[in-house]
Write a structure and sequence with these properties.
Shape: globular
Order of helices and strands: HEHHHEHEHEHEHHEHEHHEH
Strand order of the largest sheet: 2-1-3-4
Radius of gyration: 21 Å
CATH class of the largest domain: Alpha Beta
Structural class: alpha/beta
Number of strands: 8
Number of helices: 13
CATH topology of the largest domain: Rossmann fold
Helix content: 25-40%
Distance between the termini: 32 Å
CATH architecture of the largest domain: 3-Layer(aba) Sandwich
Oligomer: single chain
Amino acid sequence: MSENGLSSAAANSSESETTQVPFANEASLHGPKHVTVPQEYDAIMLAGFGGPEGQDDVIPFLRNVTRGRGIPDERLEEVATHYRHFGGVSPINEHNRQLRQAIEDEMRRRGLDLPIYWGNRNWAPYLEEKVKEAADAGHTRILGVATSAYSSYSSCRQYREDFARAILDNGLEGKVRIDKVRQFFDVPGFVKPFADGVADALKGFADQGVAPEDIRVLFATHSIPTADAERSGPQELGLGEGGAYAAQHLAVGGQIMEQLREEGKAGAETQWELVYQSRSGPPSQPWLEPDVCDRIAELPAEGAKAVAVVPLGFLSDHMEVMWDLDEEAMEAAEEAGLHAVRTPTPGSHADFVSSVVDLIEERMQATPVDQRPHMTDLGPWFDVCRPGCCENVRLGFKPAASGVKP
């Protein structure tokens, strides 16, 4: 696929290419949209969200997630019931252990002898501790891989803030540099597991005698405040309502369905749409809609007989997949009288792991833009986030690595 409109629009920007990027290695220091100079790294940092691993961890973990918002424990306990339903254990940490090992194995297979650290934002092992551990071991030129594919405050900029905070809180400014691989929403290895899951779901429905026109495919992702969504990605791209966050999901969902139709695995009549889940803000605050369960309830009146729920916004089967989709969405489908299935997430799928290592090599080698794999017209995304990218309206701009200030 040739270089896209995103890169062309960015190239027309008047912003200076000499703007300094905080905490960056040399090839990224002056803010190129895509690096053009090979870069040496001495460690990889896998950055995750984190999750509790026992009943006693649940409330302390939720306090970490909601820090600064003044939410009392009794309200946190309402959310805690989801974790307690599964013994107080979120699978996200184990998924990241498996992912870290799989990335390490693939790197070794390719002859890349770099240590891989793993740290979380909200639970042990904490990112701040892992950055210090890397620095104490003499590793100061770090390439970060965040376990989130899309552009928004919580899925990109907040990880960049985490990197900056880890450097500043440990007194490592000027000593440790951290870059970050580009957002990977449309790299082949991330998209393929979702496409395979949709194909399997459609075949299963067909085997049950459901016609293609009676099937709905709902691509589900985490809802976020509309004000944050509008500010996701570079504002210069003018991606409209929902910003880059919605545009990226829609592009990937469309690519999957187009590919399956071309391969004869999906009917031309099979309808799909993007839906949202897991909103947590006050009712007065607008968040992205429609809600996945609300849409499922409406489908029978539209002639649907089956629904495939695809967790497109999620890398692995963590709590919001297991509870909000496997429990609540499947219950909504049962109440609506629909055949229903929830398709898999990439997790540590071999194709996804291969794409992660491709991204690491791409950054180290400064692969030319027109040789970088991507499956939508929005890719390949930026190596260095653009000024003001993914602002959080409530919190404002905090120090962040791997992006042009602010």
